[in-house]
């Protein structure tokens, strides 16, 4: 997965296409490659060897495929996966009013610069998604896994994390925003 596209490439600003089932063999392979990339990027030895930045998610548009597919691999403190799935056509079907943001801010493998500031996201979401075989899933997520999924779904809609940062006051925190991490 050497071909991650960067900010400025119009694919990152496009609305990606909904996938139809059954997926093609190529689409299935792409899903597995996205996940493999995340696994390798989180393996300290492999990451060093291939000079990868650690990633918890990677969306198909980031490899210039404008389709609604993303891999998510969120580990816990012991490096055990707490949410590890290849998501096809993910949709947020309900969301909390309460917002959450990472205290550290966010980064993106497609953005080669630090953009400081809080990125407010829904603290809890209910996510509907399909796996590679077309099976439907529903998951209730909160905090970090919810934030990562929202970052990835944004990629499917042509949105980048810094679009959510308050321009005038990047670290503005209203009463409804909880910081995590
Ligand atoms: C911080 C980082 C990510 C998500 C949420 C908070 C993912 C970074 C890797 N990606 O660019 C995936 O799109
Ligand atoms: Ni990203």
TrEMBL record:
Keyword Chaperone attributed: no
KW Hydrolase (keyword) present: yes
Catalytic residues (UniProt): 152
Note on how the cofactor is bound: Binds 1 Fe(2+) ion.
Enzyme class, spelled out: hydrolase
Record family assignment: Belongs to the polypeptide deformylase family.
Cofactor(s) the record lists: Fe(2+)
Reaction(s) catalysed by this chain's protein: N-terminal N-formyl-L-methionyl-[peptide] + H2O = N-terminal L-methionyl-[peptide] + formate
Protein's gene: def
GO biological process, one term: translation
Lineage: Bacteria, Bacillati, Bacillota, Bacilli, Lactobacillales
Name by which UniProt lists this protein: Peptide deformylase
Species the sequence originates in: Liquorilactobacillus vini DSM 20605
Biological function: Removes the formyl group from the N-terminal Met of newly synthesized proteins. Requires at least a dipeptide for an efficient rate of reaction. N-terminal L-methionine is a prerequisite for activity but the enzyme has broad specificity at other positions.
Keywords: Hydrolase, Iron, Metal-binding, Protein biosynthesis
InterPro entries from the UniProt entry: Peptide_deformylase, Peptide_deformylase_sf
Residue positions binding Fe cation: 108, 151, 155
E.C. number(s) listed in UniProt: 3.5.1.88
A GO term, aspect molecular function: peptide deformylase activity
């Amino acid at each position: 997965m050497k071909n991650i596209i960067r900010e400025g490439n119009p694919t990152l600003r496009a609305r990606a296409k909904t996938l139809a089932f059954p997926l093609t063999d190529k689409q299935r392979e792409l899903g597995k490659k996205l996940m493999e990339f995340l696994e390798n990027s989180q393996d300290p030895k492999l990451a060093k060897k291939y000079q990868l930045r650690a990633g918890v998610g990677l969306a198909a548009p980031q490899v210039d495929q404008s389709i609604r597919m993303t891999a998510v691999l969120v580990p816990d403190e012991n490096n055990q996966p707490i949410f590890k799935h290849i998501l096809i056509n993910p949709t947020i079907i309900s969301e909390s009013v309460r917002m959450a943001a990472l205290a550290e801010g966010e980064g993106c493998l497609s953005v080669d610069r630090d953009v400081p500031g809080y990125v407010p996201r829904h603290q809890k979401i209910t996510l509907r998604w399909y796996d590679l075989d077309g099976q439907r899933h529903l998951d209730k997520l909160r905090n970090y896994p919810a934030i990562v999924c929202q970052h990835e779904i944004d990629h499917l809609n042509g949105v980048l994390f810094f679009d959510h940062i308050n321009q005038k006051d990047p670290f503005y925190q209203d009463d409804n925003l909880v910081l995590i991490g």
